[in-house]
Write a structure and sequence with these properties.
Strand order of the largest sheet: 1-2-3
Number of strands: 3
CATH architecture: Alpha-Beta Complex
Mean pLDDT: 90
Number of domains: 1
Structural class: alpha+beta
Number of helices: 7
CATH topology: Sufe protein. Chain: A
Helix content: 40-55%
Distance between the termini: 42 Å
Largest sheet: 3 strands, antiparallel
Shape: globular
Strand content: 5-15%
Oligomer: single chain
Radius of gyration: 15 Å
Low-confidence stretches: 1-8
Length: 152
């Protein structure tokens, strides 16, 4: 049975459960369905956050990431919400947010979402455009974390 404990604020399972769930699924049809299901579980992005400023450049599909920064005892904490007009990409957003949302800027900058992407086998099973889009999302999140540290 798949684990679905949620990461605070994102509507997705925590990243360890996602990794474990991937290992339980035997074929890529099931994994694709799971990625799509993760995307369906995202908290809806308010229309007010569907702005050009929140749009991730470098993605074939439309992707938006909205960032909120709060002070934490260990530095700025970033919370993200996101959405896409493509089901698979929305699922990739969910995986990425499960890894970074609610973390400090330093934790985000030391994390390696690209390595996780490859560990889950996503790179080899998605088009190069989707892989590049994922890298663009990671770049945007890292830039937001760097900006939060600079403003702290």
């Amino acid at each position: 049975m798949l684990k679905m404990a949620q990461t605070a604020g994102t509507g997705t399972p925590d990243i360890d459960d996602i990794i474990e769930n991937f290992s339980l699924l035997d074929d890529w049809d099931d994994r694709y369905r799971y990625v799509i299901e993760l995307g369906r579980g995202l908290i809806p992005l308010p229309d007010a956050d569907r702005t050009d400023a929140n749009k991730v450049q470098g993605c074939t599909s439309q992707v938006w990431l909205a960032t909120a920064v709060e002070r934490g005892p260990d530095g700025p904490v970033l919370d993200f919400i996101g959405d896409s007009d493509a089901h698979i990409v929305r699922g990739l957003v969910a995986i990425l947010l499960a890894m970074v949302s609610g973390r400090t800027a330093s934790e985000i900058l030391s994390a390696d979402p690209i390595a996780l992407f490859e560990k889950l086998g996503l790179r080899e099973h998605l088009t190069p455009q989707r892989s590049n889009g994922f890298r663009s999302m990671v770049g945007r999140i890292r830039a937001d974390a760097q900006a939060a540290l600079a403003g702290a």
